[in-house]
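Sample pair:
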Amino acid sequence: MDTSRKANALLHERSPYLLQHAHNPVAWEPWGDAAFARALAEDKPVFLSVGYSACHWCHVMERESFEDEATAALLNERFVSIKVDREERPDVDQVYQLAHQVLTQRGGGWPLSMFLTPDRRPFYGGTYFPDQRRHGSLSFREVLTAIVDAWTDRRDEVVTQAGELTATLARVTRPADPDAAGSVAPDALERALLRVLPRVDPRHGGFGGAPKFPNTMTHDLLLVGAALDVGGVGARCADATLHTLQRMRAGGIWDHLGGGFARYSTDAEWKIPHFEKMLYDNAQLLRLAVDAAGLVRLRGGDDSLRETLLSVARDTRAYLLREMRSPEGFFYSAQDADSEGEEGRFFVWTAAQVEGLVGPADAEAFCALYDVSAEGNFEHGRSVLWTPRPLEQVAAALGRPVDELVAVAERVRPVLLAAREQRPRPMRDDKCLASWNGLALGALAHLGAALDEPDAVALARDGLYAWRDRAFRDGVLAHAIKDGDAYGTAFLDDHGALANAAVDVFEATADPAALAFARALLDAVLARFVDPATGALYFSPADAEVVLYRSRDAFDHAYPGGVGLTLEALLRVATLTGDRGYRAAADRAIALYAAEATGNPLGMGSVLRAVDRATRGPVEVIVLGDPARDDTRALVATARSVFLPHRALLVAPDAASAVALGLDGELAQGRGPTGDGAPRAYVCRGTTCQAPVGDGDTLLATLRRALASG
């Protein structure tokens, strides 16, 4: 970006992505009525470009085309060009991604390049267009010239195409017919898992081949199947997720120096990442690692595997707090893949660099362990750090003891990290999004509770209340915070993610303010996002801009969709509070989505998990006793340390205190500590309750029995 050029209309936007383009020679405008009014007045088509700040191919297209004076001149003369940050306006992105998929019959992606009529209707599009013909693709300028010709000479065809495409979008996104909703199949999860398991890569983990994404929502389903041994495939489900996490941890997708995961791997082995780091990936994978460790304990598995998984969670937490947390307690969105004009330059190493920092003896061992060689495993003789060979195999090849290699790795990693910190850093997108922050705050509360780390719980609680106090006014939530200012229309996933985080904080702290915030967010959903005729959940609130149509997309994308998040929150709060209104709203929507989710488990994992919670019922764990007593804390720690699908955890001194917290009195009615004050834990599933217990070992056995009965 050449900041010496005259700025365009993006200069006054908040989005870091839009600001990246503020000095392009393209006369960009932000999304809004003014841009479309100008297109109508000047009788020009609209070029809509959608991307995000950490998107590598967005940067490539900018360098090749949007910084090119001749291309910019063509755009400025014959088009009105609009730039959108998909993270600020996911509603715009959803609509035109679907339009692209309908047009091309291919998956979408970023940058998204769409051509629209002045009334916002799409008629042609693609994703990345190169500056020169390449791999059978027209150059971007050839595409622009063809669009100009069509707009000038075949306007009727363009208008017809736009009309037909818009009609198709209206048809495929039509709200579900409530009369067509059926009962939810009790074996929905089993049928879905039998669709998922054949897609697992047994060698490298994950699903399918290259490129390979975390697909965390699907692994969440597999963990549920593993804990409940659904359909007798529990062992296969456990193996799939535990193996995947171990292979990812060994791969280059994991940052072996600074912690945290990159967006995806360009190969099937998790070796070469696409280097950007997204908040949503790391929040989800942190939680998945905690739950996987809890599954290992539930199943009585290998303690060393459990510790490996917990180290992933802790190191990811450390990365988020070091790199992604704002001074106010919010979390930034992303870190870029590129620095100094090259993808991955910040993260990769040469053998000479390593030797220059730690000397030849340690360098030999470290480079052998992390696959750093003179020729490199990446580009320009550089290497991505990963551990393709077992430690024992490397030690044998070098003729050095395993313990010595472990010591070398522990000694060298901090040295390399400190040296890396001196390099020019990738750009960080410093806007904070409600939905992604909800995922991160919930994961921190979950980790802190499971590992008995009060500091992590406190960070989650403080961050949650910072969102409430800064971004929730008169029942209306803001979508984003940047530089301390809240702005933008919040969407369904914003409400659902923060509501779940509030429940996580409540279960970790028993703070009634957290449960009250969850209820306030869900009340806003019921008031502004529900179709009264069908019970469908819309992505945008009723009072927001409608972009062609009002989306009710129930699919997950790179992070859980708003429908799945909201259904989960409704069911969790309904269990804790006994509020039948939340349960009724969830049941009505589930009837609309359950069949589609069962048939699309890789695309609707979060919905399917909520469907299973609704049909199977929660595991209710009620611990009543003095929280200052060691035996009470031991019971609570046991309940939190194992993975319990669809858990609802209530911790209070006694039944009266539980009601005062805003909880359903029936959960604690007739229950409490013993006459001598010793705590009691009660475990229920549906209408079946186990005998009360008073120690951690017995509670663990009771929890296993409760799951087996489910």
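The mean pLDDT is 94.
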